[in-house]
Amino acid sequence: xxSLDLTPTNENVYNSLINDSVGRGEFVRQFVKMLNAIxxxxxxxxEGNWGSGKTFFVKQVKMVLDAHNPNYQPVNGFLTEERxxxxxxxxxxxxxxxxSTELKPQxxxxxxxxxxxxxxxxxxxxxxxxxxxxxxxxxxxxKSTLDICGVLIKLACDKDISKLINVLKGENALDLIKETKDxxxxxxxxxxxxxxxxGERLIVFVDELDRCKPSYAVKLLEKIKxxxxxxxxxxxxxxxxxxxxxxxxxxxxxxxxxxxxxxxxFDLRAAxxxxxxxxYYANIGFELNENMFNYVCASVIREYQLEMRDIAxxxxxxxxxxxxxxxxxxxxxxAYGEKRNAIYCYWTCIIPIxxxxxxxDTKRFENFVNGKDYTPLLDFQECFCTxxxxxxxxxxxxxxxxxxxxVIENTIKEIYxxxxxxxxxxxxxxxxxxxxxxxxxxxxxxxxxxxxxxSASFDEE
Length: 461
Prior knowledge:
52% of the residues lie in helices and 8% in strands. It has 22 helices and 7 strands.
């Protein structure tokens, strides 16, 4: 079974931009306008939870800006003239001929801080990312940051990138370092030497900083603030701000004021808008309909406020654990009379709730399956009085009574006890509403939720 969570490849970023698959197209264009309007040195925090789609968002923004920069020549050749044209048509408000906003050419760099947090000094990998984005495909071995910057400045001032590549591949790069300027000045000179040929401004998108080692995250922040002071530079940090504050506290101590510390770095703080849930469901092939299983899954997603990555993971787990016939609402359960109703109960309701609980709160999940806490089921009380499930769980007079919330809650507790608490004798049966529960049902439920049931399916697309 393939993962439903798309990786942010060029192809996926392009398709999600053109198809507006999560309903953020308007916000991508708004963010591009904001970046285009900035005229001085600026550092922006783009805030969003883990798994909310920050990486896709900033890569979409970068792709729009790249498409409008006539000087940009992508290393991998993905952004062809045809794709540029399609993106421009999608973002027609940036075509200046009709008097709308004209985008100035800007060199955009995507920097994954997490992938580089084993470096001793972040400036080396950051400068490398900037140089690589100008077009040449090259690599060089690790040398001291000061030496590399010195080489970059000496050669970049001559606008000879091919010579730069050859030198960095060589063994005698240190011999070329003759100047003793401050390292920050070298970085500034290097950027000033590149920008005139590739754009009016430099925009660096720093991603995954909140996942980095605390020492690296702090070092990157402080060196960027100290070294990249030019008015032609904008930094965009896509971060989970709460997690980043925890990271800062791990470095400086639990009593450290991480909020005020980060305020020193971020000139602007923008919040990643909520994605369009219905569009995202359509994108991952999850249908909102009257099917009881889908209804409960959608309730779990809503109750636990799952972000896109967790929704994709949750739906994938559900598709593995629960047979397709159950998920599509036409399960042919064994003709076990009222035991059949109990099986329907845990397939369509208990299992989806367990999968969501396990994904979001492992401690509460453990208490739930060990018979210590039935309250997670109360979060989904409306599911227990819906459609055919109510036919199984409630007697006729209970369904037709006015305010039956107390009855529903009591029934939920009885169902929970029947599965996770009750100790059965060999032939004992516990009746709840129109359902018969037996002692082997807890084992069945645990196997299903653990993806170890014989009915688990791993071969669906």
